[in-house]
Amino acid sequence: MGTQLFALNITKYLKMAEDLYIPTDVSKEEVYRSLYPQLEALLISETDQIANMANIASALKEALGFFWVGFYRVVGERLVLGPFQGPIACTSIVLGRGVCGSAWKQAKTIIVPDVDKFPGHIACSSQSRSEIVVPVKHKNTVVAVLDVDSNQLNSFDETDLYWLEKICELL
Question: What is the CATH number of the domain that holds 41?
Fold first, then answer.
């Protein structure tokens, strides 16, 4: 019975895959709770990571209205711009440089309440005011980072950290 119920739920979300259901007038936590199973259903049948990153970036921007959402992929000794939503961005970042390079080097999520106060911040856009960067890992190796920027100060908290890490685990 449990397997049949799971299959029905996944089928329900797969039918919705072309249109996200985003609740309004609810907390950020509730938006993430609603978005997560939809992303899970969308990604379950796709093995191409670029396609999955593109859909995650789009869904996060649409659902939560972030200023910029995107991925940087580890290519050799640098991070290279991957799928994103928002204004044009830096195309290459070295290990340890900026928030993305630091999150890659430390292999941990970094929340920056005010990017102007982060040593070595890379200003791809002067409109970015706060940022969260989440490493995407495969077998304990960072293979990419999810970078999310806001045009408001102090936009990210433990709720974002929890859900964005959980979403990155889908990759």
Answer: 3.30.450.40
List the Cα angle 124/129/133 in 5-degree steps: 70
For 46-58, give the DSSP string: ---HHHHHHHHHH
Transcribe 71-124 into DSSP letters: EEEEETTEEEEEEEESS----EEETTSHHHHHHHHHTS-EEES-GGGSTT---S
65 contacts 22 by C-beta, under 8 angstroms: no
Give the domain extent around 16.
2-169
Q: Name, in order, each residue with C-beta under 8 angstroms of 2's C-beta and a sequence gap of 6 or more.
A: none
Number of domains in the chain: 1
The answer to whether the predicted template modeling score (pTM) of the entire model surpasses 0.70 is yes
109 vs 120 pLDDT, higher one: 109
> How far, in Å, CA of 27 to CA of 51, rounded?
28
Mean pLDDT of the chain: 88
Q: In the chain, pLDDT over 70 holds for what percent of residues? A: 87
